[in-house]
Prior knowledge:
Strand order of the largest sheet: 1-2
Strand content: under 5%
Number of strands: 4
Oligomer: single chain
Distance between the termini: 167 Å
Helix content: 40-55%
Structural class: mainly alpha
Amino acid sequence: MPYLKSHIRDALDLVPKYDGYNIPVWQFSRACKRAKESIPSVDEAQLVRMLRNKLSHHAYLAVEDEAHLSVNKFLETLKRTFGPGRNSNYYRGQLSNAYKKPSEHILDYIGRIKDLRIAIIEGDQAIFDRPCTEVEISSIDSFTLDSFFEGLPREYRVELRAEGYGNFSDACSKVIAIHKRLEREDSRYRGPASSRNNQAQGAAHVAAPARPSPSQGPSLINNQSAPTVGPSLVGQKICNYCKKIGHLINECHKRQYNQNRSSTNRVDNNSQPAAIPPTGNRPEASAAGTLRGPANFRPANLIDTGLGPSTSSVQTTEVYQSLSSYPLISEAP
């Protein structure tokens, strides 16, 4: 056939590339089954040959030497090689503990639940060696729906319970609508405009200068040389006495030292005796009304006249003028 049919090309577009490790084998299996359902059954063999071109590396080596006429046989070979090799009970345990992770998209969560559902169905078919009946598939779907609902976040469960759901497919479609609605509501409070406003308000708040409190006194307000308190210094201790960072005025060692020093000087001044007014180098008034400076007196020397004992002796007093006294003025005899 020189040209590929258009509906087969469209079906192949639904299948992603698979190398055995880039995506789970269950996800590749679901894509192949969707492609199979979109074409007539007579073209299934040709679809299988085209699906081999979607494989690379180890995935292609796993089916290279085998010929498959149906999609199911083709997928069984891949699952046997790249599947976890667990039975259906293991996948039931995984499904009961499944939940939507905080950073996980809702579609990824739905895909994981679908993969576990398919794994349970195929595991039961491998155990019983026959296709599952409608009752068994209905029981698996009911268990899948309950696990899917319990794994949703609280806001999803509240809205899904209020809207109601009939089966797993209906619940998935309504959860997708709920997810879009919640995303739209969250964008109202986390939009770019609100973030810009918050940034502008934050910048204005940081740029505003800090006012001194009244408890700091007028010294900091009138002191123009006080250090400017920037955004990085907000909340730090600043001394109003020495203008240093790291302590308050009541913790300032320099202030305590100066106070102790001034109190010590005050105590020394109070303990000294009253000052005696000096008598030297101070002008005094004489009997004649003239000024005379103070004089220093020395003991008198007796002069022997040779006339014998005398009842009176003349005492000559030598007066030495002080260097800093005023000059003496001669007095009349």
